[in-house]
Design goal:
The chain is an alpha/beta fold and 678 residues long. Strand 31 and strand 32 form a beta hairpin. The chain is built from 15 helices and 32 strands. The longest helix is centred in the middle third of the chain and has 18 residues. Helix content is 19%, strand content 27%. The strands form seven sheets. Strands 13, 14, 15, 16, 17, 18, 19 and 20 form an eight-stranded mixed beta sheet that branches. Strands 3-6-2-9-11-12-21 form a seven-stranded parallel beta sheet, with helices on both faces. A five-stranded mixed beta sheet has the order 25-32-31-27-29, with no helix packed on it. Helix 9 packs across helix 10.
């Protein structure tokens, strides 16, 4: 039919789910762009929003900006001067009993991300008394527009594309997308890549979560170069819940435990001693505490020690009252459970098991959760998806990292406050982790830059955020930039980066053509019949004006790359930037010229980067940086060199999908086991 660009299967996408802004050095008052925050509109594609939350009150806010063309859709949902637009989409027409047929949020995820990006200040916010303080978003004065595309059954690609279309037409400034595919697809089959390309054409930056399939390499989602791809890192606060045994020994676990047993010791039993034989379980099965495997006669009224992390419903169903879980894979973020619970190390678990076996009547208690200072923060969290880029090895991804661990933000009061979807408790704020949480931090930061620099392009805003990021300690991350990209976001500095690497639609079209796209496949992305490729012969993407440098070397080949970059002066008119580079001695980097002199704002200067080195094969990532300095300005871009298999510079969609499926299958577990979803 005329007007149809392409037809794609309606696939399912996944959701990627107070202290954080302060930890980034981003104060609540006195920021450069604050007077203009009200002119900036953040559009979020998510599970909806709870409009009555205190985080979305509109006290003191003026009417929406005159550019706004959106609407408030659905019954029993009222917008205000904070939430100025709300729509919902459900192309499948399927609704679970828990779904609300309006932009209203019954899952909590969209309320959490919205308030993280742009929530108003709310004093006395906490999760059952934990993490109490003032909750706020990055740009409390900015406006929010919600596009509900996610339901109990997932987030469908047709709805995502429709939401992008509406958000662009409505007049949003930033689009925040904490969802993504599990798997790799070419850009012309990927709705977020297509939608964000159209947003970029209209001057709108799209910020996306990298995914929660880490720490596996090449596991990240949303890797198109016109997208800002965000990993998740810790902040300097972690939640612990301690176990005290009857012998007085104390063990520290990781959990957000809101239940207070008041120090009361209760009978303690090992799951292996409570096998439900009638259900076909034995001690080797019941020790993991899966659903239906526990003997309720033996578990009733007891704390259960489990050799693995579970949701906790299995213990509640067996009339247990608490859970101590041994799992050394969960060490850097906390879960909330529907009962008193904590996750300890496997080593401590062995000690507890020995205690149980040595006592006729073992007892224990689980203390209410505490917040401890994490002096090692920020670290990229284990679940955060890693690079390298699975589609375009010459583009370094993720772009940067932001707070995404144990984040307190607003929540839907009808959504479960724990990992148990049947938990009927109600909260106004919740603490969860995920790249879904890091994405709105970056969206808020981008909105802050947009408020201060309203005429900057999406690429300029992205460049400013990347080149001013805090340097992350490489000694803590063996995968280096594949974990954290350019570094840890520094919003305050991003409004004054000195220089930016700018790019527009024509630059990305040239990139796509060099990736092997022809005119036909190119137009599936651009939607423009005037778009064309002069050549469809694949080539390196080193001339895309990107704020980072990536050299992918096929095994056995020499390190050899030539990059061309252009920077635009957005700092003082008369300024001279000098070069500083860092790279291990095995690699030689030459930059010409090594001095960039500017006489006006908006002036552009180009430079060439030559990277040479010996033949390499099967080498881990080599990490360096190219830095331009003038006065207090430090414009830093990471440079990485790494090896890939021969013939994989331009992976085919079928090969990428196979890799993705393998990644996903390794994370599925038996019913009742924890699986990170946000």
């Amino acid at each position: 039919m005329e007007g149809v660009i392409s037809v794609l299967p309606n696939q399912i996408l996944e959701l990627h789910t107070t202290r954080s802004w302060d930890f980034m050095g981003f104060p609540s008052k006195g920021k450069v762009g604050s007077p203009h925050e009200g002119d900036v509109i953040i559009g979020l594609l998510d599970t909806g929003i709870w409009p009555e939350s205190d985080s979305f009150n509109d006290e003191g806010l003026s009417s929406p900006p005159s550019k706004w063309k959106g609407k408030c859709q659905g019954a029993n949902f009222t917008c205000n001067n904070k939430i100025i637009g709300a729509r919902y989409y459900n192309s499948q027409g399927f609704h679970d009993i828990t779904d609300i047929k309006s932009p209203r949020d019954s899952k909590g995820h969209g309320t959490h991300t919205s308030s993280t990006a742009a929530g108003r200040e709310v004093a006395g916010a906490s999760y059952f008394g934990l993490a109490e303080g003032t909750a706020r978003g990055g740009v409390p004065g900015a406006r929010i527009a919600m596009y509900k595309v996610c339901w109990s059954s997932g987030c469908y690609s047709a709805d995502v594309l429709a939401a992008f279309d509406d958000a662009i037409a409505d007049g949003v400034d930033i689009i925040s997308v904490s969802i993504g595919f599990i798997g790799f697809s070419p850009y012309f089959k990927e709705p977020i890549a297509i939608g964000s390309f159209h947003a970029m054409k209209k001057g709108i930056l799209t910020s996306c979560s990298a995914g929660n399939s880490g720490p596996y390499p090449q596991s990240l989602a949303n890797h198109a170069p016109w997208i800002l791809t965000v990993a998740a890192s810790t902040i300097d606060r972690k939640f612990v819940a301690q176990v005290v045994l009857g012998n007085g020994r104390v063990y520290t676990g990781i959990a957000i435990n809101s239940f207070n047993l008041n120090g009361t010791s209760l009978p303690l039993i090992w799951g292996g001693d409570a096998a439900n034989y009638s259900a076909g379980a034995d001690p080797d099965i019941s020790k993991y505490c899966y659903n239906g495997d526990l003997n309720s006669y033996k578990v009733q009224g007891k704390i259960v020690f489990c050799e693995g992390a579970v949701v906790g419903t299995s213990i509640l169903l067996a009339n247990g009252v608490g859970a101590i879980m041994a799992d050394s894979s969960i060490t850097d973020f906390g879960y909330s459970f529907p009962l008193p619970a904590t996750i300890i190390s496997v080593e401590d678990g062995l000690t507890i098991l020995n205690y149980i076996r040595s006592k006729e009547t073992p007892i224990a208690t689980i203390l209410v959760g505490e917040t401890w200072k994490d002096v090692m923060a920020p670290n990229v969290v284990s679940f955060s998806s890693r690079g390298p880029n699975p589609i375009a090895p010459d583009i370094l991804k993720p772009d940067l990292t932001a707070p995404g661990v144990d984040i307190l933000a607003a929540w839907s009061p009808v959504a479960s406050p724990s990992v148990d979807p049947d938990d009927t408790r109600s909260v106004k704020f919740n603490i969860i982790s995920g790249t879904s949480m890091s994405c709105p931090h970056t969206s808020g930061a981008a909105a802050y830059v947009k408020a201060a620099r309203p005429y900057w392009s999406p690429a300029a805003i992205k460049s400013a955020l990347m080149t001013t990021a805090y340097i992350v300690d490489p000694k803590k991350h063996e995968d280096l930039e594949f974990a954290y990209g350019s570094g840890y976001i520094n919003p305050l500095q991003a409004v004054d980066p000195g220089l930016v690497y700018d790019a527009y639609e024509a630059d990305y079209i040239n990139f796509l053509c060099m990736q092997g796209y022809n005119t036909t496949t190119l137009r599936l992305i651009t939607g423009d019949n005037s778009s064309f490729c002069n050549t469809s012969k694949p080539g390196r993407a080193w001339n895309l004006n990107y704020p980072s440098f990536s050299v992918a070397v096929e095994d056995g080949q020499q390190i050899k790359a030539v990059f061309t970059r252009t920077v635009t002066n957005v700092g003082p008119p008369n300024s001279t930037y000098t070069l500083s580079t860092y790279i291990p001695a095995s690699v030689d980097v030459t930059v010409e010229p090594s001095v960039l002199s500017f006489s006006s704002i908006g002036e552009k200067k180009s430079f060439t980067v030559l990277v040479y080195g010996p033949k390499i094969a099967q080498q881990p990532i080599i990490s360096g940086a190219i830095i331009w300095k003038y006065g207090h300005y430090v414009v830093r871009s990471p440079l990485v060199v790494y090896t890939i298999l021969p013939g994989t510079l331009y992976p085919s969609p079928s090969m990428s999908q196979k890799k993705a499926n393998l990644r996903v299958s390794s994370m599925h577990h038996k019913n009742g086991i924890l699986k990170h979803k946000y």
